[in-house]
Amino acid sequence: MQNALFVGVSSQVALQRELDVIANNMANMSTNGFKSRTSRFQEYLMPVASADSFSAPDRRLSYVIDQGTTLNLGQGPVEQTGNPLDVAVKGSAFIAVRAQGGAERYTRNGALSVDARGQLVTSDGYPVMGEGGPITVNPQETGLAIGPDGTVSTNLGIRGRIKLVTFANPNALINDGGNLYSSTSPARPAGLDGRLEPGALERSNVSPVLEMTRLMDVNRTYTMVSSVISRMDDLRGTAISRLANVA
Predict the structure, then answer these.
(1) pLDDT (tens digit, 9 = 90+) per residue, 107-128?
(2) Which of 176, 181, 205, 210 could, after both became Cys, cross-link 76 (CB 3.0–4.6 A)?
(3) Helix/strand number for the chain, H first, E second
(4) Is the dihedral of CA 81, 83, 84, 85 positive or negative?
(5) pLDDT tens column, 7-37
(6) What is the DSSP letter of 185?
(7) Which positions ≥6 away from 122 have C-beta within 8 Å?
(8) pTM of this prediction exceeds 0.90
(9) Burial, 153: exposed, middle or buried (Cβ in 10 Å; 0-12, 13-18, 19+)?
(10) What is the rounded CA–CA span in Å between residue 81 and residue 205?
């Protein structure tokens, strides 16, 4: 009976984790370049008891183990904006930016602009990295444009090239806040694996219908598991009460 309660609690913990992932996906349905995540779980079978005095063999107990999440790198819808500084990232590439403290981070947010210091930045204010550092332009320059290969040019010529990178193992990417990712594996030049579409933005690849369906499934399963735990707890209380009344 106690084991059944433990199994139920492990299921509830896993369902709560999945609910958090779904909530985060839904909260970022309108975030430029956001990539949804899916929970991963693994079955854990408890070892069978070694005693052989039972009339029937022990049954293995199956628990749920949280194995983290998988990043969905599917292309989000591309929306034309007409803004020459908006770029939709195509393929598996990410834009390298400089985060707080100077660390390099990665994003799919292609809503770019020029800040007061002349730096090309994302809509979140992170400087976009070029091959030699952050890309800057002078106030007197005009005709700022971004090419499909990431080349940034003005009326005075080429000012830099946006650093596009990919990863051998995209699932090593870790959400780092502010629509940024860090990685436990080194980044490599995107090459042909990444291009930009100027004058457009990649929207979130979250599917509202899919997430709502998952949300309903999780809530239904959580309610069912809670009901089972409640009945098992009532059964245990009844058993204790009856055993206490045995003369």
Answers:
(1) 999 999 999 999 999 999 999 9
(2) 205
(3) 2, 19
(4) negative
(5) 667 677 778 888 889 999 999 999 999 999 9
(6) S
(7) 95, 97, 107, 109, 110, 111, 112, 128
(8) no
(9) middle
(10) 18
